[in-house]
């Protein structure tokens, strides 16, 4: 057990570094940029609160585990703002390769059985095809929208985001998992676009 | 549904403030104090990783939900460092009253059915008598120990923590939920006490 615990705590200590990865968006009080660890916490809370919007075949426990894990690769690969110059709804090949390498290294710190299970959850989230992943991804996309609404437009103004960009880069993924929520949120987002 | 969503997003926006509540301990790189939102994320990850240490009657999904919620009251009531001057293993009556009022206000932002369910999870965590709460509480106590070990003693040195204080304020709760882990961690903590 000692070796297993040593591996587990090595992973948990490495994970601490996600608290220093900064995202484009700010806290709702505008005081500073959000980091990816607290963003992941917020997403798990979003999952709990918006669980009543999930289709019946969604397993909330798996969704929460996916959301807790989903950004760990940013420890090595960084966060790519979805509205940055040249941004699209999809990561570049180089970014995807960097994230794959990060996943291999970081999940590789765990005991092999656990590393494989965590990696499978991350792969499922990234592939975005199962009901759990689609719901999780829609939460990952709607939370920054709500942060920007609270911040009077926030990073949309910084990046000059258009309605088309909001709909294609963000709305399309939110609509897949949270269609009724997207209708509600979009109405409140549009007046704040630059 | 519109009113329900408005209440849910009001709660989720208020929850964002937990990212500005600072704890006594620091990140493992020592760069700054940890906030309670990213601490809660780290605990959910601890729960996933140390799930193989949980008794069979522990429901990991409930544990994760408890951990995501457990510090929200600090938005109003603040974080009380367990090793601060006059600190004990238990919160003061005044602190408990402040946390009860915070729970009423913050969970009260949600639709009533959801607010009651979240409040019940928080009450269960605080009472620390069910298998899920005991496991969750032991994670909440062991993570700061690991942060201090990574920080060469961290807040133990700042507060002049003794072996007896570590055992009574921290070890007793960890031992209830994670007895084998506490044996392993304690050996690594003792040489770093001041």
UniProtKB/TrEMBL annotation, chains A, B:
Keyword Hydrolase: yes
Domain HD: 15-182
Record keywords: Hydrolase, Metal-binding
Name recorded for this polypeptide: HD domain-containing protein
One of the record's GO cellular component terms: cytoplasm
PANTHER family registered for this protein in UniProt: 5'-DEOXYNUCLEOTIDASE HDDC2
Keyword Metal-binding: yes
InterPro entries listed in its UniProt record: HD_domain (IPR006674), YfbR/HDDC2 (IPR039356)
GO MF, any single term: 5'-deoxynucleotidase activity
Family matches, as Pfam families: HD_3
């Amino acid at each position: 057990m000692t070796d297993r615990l040593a591996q587990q705590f090595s992973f948990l200590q490495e994970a601490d570094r996600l608290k220093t990865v900064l995202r484009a968006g700010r806290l709702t009080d505008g005081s500073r940029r959000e980091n990816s660890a607290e963003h992941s916490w917020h997403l798990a809370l979003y999952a709990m609160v918006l669980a009543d919007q999930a289709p019946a075949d969604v397993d909330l426990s798996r969704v929460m585990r996916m959301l807790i894990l989903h950004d760990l690769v940013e420890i090595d690969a960084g966060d790519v703002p979805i509205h940055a110059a040249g941004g699209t709804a999809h990561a570049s090949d180089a970014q995807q390769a960097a994230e794959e390498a990060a996943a291999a290294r970081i999940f590789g710190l765990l005991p092999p059985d656990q590393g494989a299970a965590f990696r499978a959850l991350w792969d499922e989230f990234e592939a975005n095809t199962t009901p759990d992943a689609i719901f999780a991804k829609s939460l990952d996309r709607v939370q920054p929208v709500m942060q920007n609404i609270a911040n009077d437009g926030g990073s949309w103004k910084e990046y000059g985001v258009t309605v088309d960009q909001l709909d294609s880069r963000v709305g399309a993924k939110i609509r897949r998992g949270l269609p009724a929520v997207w209708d509600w949120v979009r109405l409140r987002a549009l007046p704040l676009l630059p």
